[in-house]
Amino acid sequence: MDTHARYVPYILLLVAVAGERVVELVVARRNSAWAARRGGVETGQGHYPFMVVLHTGLLLGALLEVTILHRPFLPWLGWPMLALVVAAQALRWWCILTLGPRWNTRIVVVPGLPPITRGPYRWLRHPNYVAVVVEGIALPLVHTAWWTAVVFTVLNAGLLTVRIRQEEAAMARAAGLPGLRAP
């Protein structure tokens, strides 16, 4: 098999994930309009560009690391990691469907709406971020892009620390809990 041809399935996987991200952005834009019509308030805009760069970097980093450094596909690692990528996508879309028009890539909260406590939110406060963490590790490791997995995971941990703090504060303010300031 040609050296570059062996990367085609992985490249197609990355393209599929990128396409899924585009769909997410379309859904998020529609949901932002829905929230705005209901008095939704966006917070946490400062970290959003970093999040976009980081998630784009995950896809590009995996692509470049695999093709430039000729990372091999190791079946004992690649197949379980692919299963985790698929599971992460399923969890992400379960979150999106459960939240409906309240789901967004940005932090947009409609004041007065109660928290969602069904679907994956029955068990986890932020299940979508579990999907992001799993995908950030598993997607690069499908084709042994170790550096991309490590760098994304470390940077994403910092990002999620900021984002979850801001999201929690926004939800508390929307629910009218006293003593919280804008982050």
From TrEMBL:
One of its GO terms (molecular function) is protein C-terminal S-isoprenylcysteine carboxyl O-methyltransferase activity. GO terms for cellular component: membrane. The chain crosses the membrane at residues 7-28, 48-69, 76-94. Keywords: Membrane, Methyltransferase, Transferase, Transmembrane, Transmembrane helix. Gene3D superfamilies: 1.20.120.1630. It is a multi-pass membrane protein. It comes from the Bacteria. It is found in: Membrane. One of its GO terms (biological process) is methylation. This is Isoprenylcysteine carboxyl methyltransferase family protein. The lineage of its organism: Bacteria, Bacillati, Actinomycetota, Actinomycetes, Nakamurellales.
